[in-house]
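Collaborator request, handled under Task 6.
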Amino acid sequence: MLSRVRNVFVISALGVLGGILKNILLARELTKEELGIYSLLMTIVGFVYPLTLLGQHNAIVRFMADKDFSEYNWPKKILQLLFVSFCLTVLAVGIFRMTYDLKFLAMTFLLLATLGTVGTDVYASIYRAQGKYEISMVIFRILSLLLPLAIFLLLILKMVTLSNILILFSILYALVPLVMVNFVRQGINSGSAKIPKSVWKDGIFLWGADLSLLVIVSIDKFLIPKLITYQALGEYFAIFSITRAFDLVLKAFEMVLLPHLKKSGTVHLGSLLSWVLGSALILSAFYLLAGDTLVELVFKGKYSNSSSLIPFFCVLGTIRLLHVIPYSVIGGLLKQHRLKQMFHINILTIFLAILLSFFLINNYGLVGAVTAGIAVWAFKTLAGFGIMFKDTWDSKENFRTEGTDNHE
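Structure tokens returned to the collaborator:
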């Protein structure tokens, strides 16, 4: 398995580096307020698109990971999902328009970016369910590589404005998924067997995990422009962008673990913990030693006053990496009643995230925003491990707490 993680890590690294480069260029070229507006729009996209999928992209992976795609009419399931997602996206964009008084260009960008991301994520999930993790990651990250190239084009033409960025990004978000659809449909055969309706139900329980995740990672960015300013959100976004290497490692583990556990049927907990904690310690040491200098050099001193947030983001990144273990085990290996238990925990986490974020941001500003995230992720991670170990005590056959994973 770890060889697959390394492969996915390399591909994911290119995508994350592309995203970091894009954010750095935007932070250097836009004003802090414009960067805050862009950050809000991307937060909305990141919040809405998985919400509209209703957990079905993960449910497809869970169901099809040990099945033959050529026997099932999976394109019908995908079309149903895309239709539902489109309707929910239109509704969500309308709600956010009223909440933040968004203009027509911002609404158009939100619609195209959300639907484009839905398309790439869904079709990436098809390859992920087949165990073709590298192809899946290429599809998932392709836009992250193209968007910074679009900014370079605007720089060459000396046309870097927030409006031009949104227009060019909208075009890419619309075109890339159309190419991906044709690529996937030609590369994977389908059959006549129906995907059971129970997959929708499983997806809803997995969606609970997505919903709580969305609230946790988005609530700070939704509240900062309301409780502080768009300029403060721009500063928060800039420092967060620097620490995105944590997301790179997290995504690599997350992409491989769930389908791998579904196929192997066992958990080598000692090996997983050592790899996850080792990765977190290396990243934290790098940011704590070089973070201030990195912010100074990358942003030319523009955001140096906010570099004190880096240690907080390191703690947050470490806890998020640990969370990927119970999330993957519960989603990929345990029975449905464990999914229900995690669903209830996730609903509780949503209310906790909203209350803590509102209180801490209102009283402690940007430090309060990160602190709220740390507290909520710690609760969510501990609850996940609790459910996982409870299953261990009830039935030990699926778990190994020692040993090395030899499934390559």
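The cover message to the collaborator said: "Residues 2-400 form one domain. Residues 336-394 form the longest helix (59 residues). Please let us know whether this matches your experimental observations."
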